[in-house]
Amino acid sequence: MSDKKWNISVILADIQFLTNEALRAMLTPLCRSFAMVSTKAGLQQHLQKEGISLIITDYVLFDFGSISELGDLRKNHPEIGIVVLTNLITYIKIKELNDIGIRNIVLKTDDRDEIFQAIEAALKGKKYYSGDVLDILLKKDGPLEDATILTTSEIEIVRMISSGLSTKEIAVKKHISFHTVMTHRKNIFRKLGVSSTPELLMYAIKAGLIDNIEYHI
């Protein structure tokens, strides 16, 4: 992609100072407009304006509570391209993003050309994974591959368990019955071949379902 002026309006949703400043310096001269936001409220305020072309976000560091919120953003604004720019990515999370229609993913360690190619693909409604992201997709050894048998709902429950929520609290949060949560738990334990909550959480960390700073035993 050349450095010609693009007739696009870009929103950067990230809280990492160095990333924000680098992208601002790189993209501002090339775009019709470029804005940075650090909260969901700020993002929603900008989305009220017409003509937004692209959102670039590190969904992990930003104010999103879960990947499903990014999915809702995609559904509510299908005309806007979305590029995920992050270093906190695993095979499982790439799969989850793909399932909600987010298929333009690059790493913050990728070079300028890869970032530009992801932007161009998102604007055209095409998918683009950087070389390093493709390497993650192609490497599916051990528990990472096994963890893909969990459903989206089961992954969400694993993450709620990791945050310290009880079965009753999970039922309330998901608006389902206590019995349904227990059934999900049994299915998760059976699928992953674990027999205790600590064992489940250690497995989930290794599989990339959760970060080791997310769980409480």
Summarize the structure.
This protein is an alpha/beta fold. 50% of the residues lie in helices and 11% in strands. Helix 3 links the parallel strand 3 and strand 4.
Shape: elongated
Tally of strands: 6
Tally of individual helices: 11
Strand arrangement across the biggest beta sheet = 2-1-3-4-5-6
Name the average pLDDT: 86
Separation of the first and last Cα atoms: 49 Å
Number of domains: 2
CATH homology-level superfamily of the largest domain: Response regulator
Strand percentage:
5-15%
At the first level of CATH, the class of the largest domain is Alpha Beta
Main structural class:
alpha/beta
**Biggest sheet details:** 6 strands, parallel
Succession of helices and strands: EHEHEHEHEHEHHHHHH
Helix content: 40-55%
How does CATH name the architecture of the largest domain? 3-Layer(aba) Sandwich
Low-confidence stretches: 141-145, 213-217
Question: Which value, in Å, is the CA radius of gyration?
Answer: 19 Å
CATH topology of the largest domain: Rossmann fold
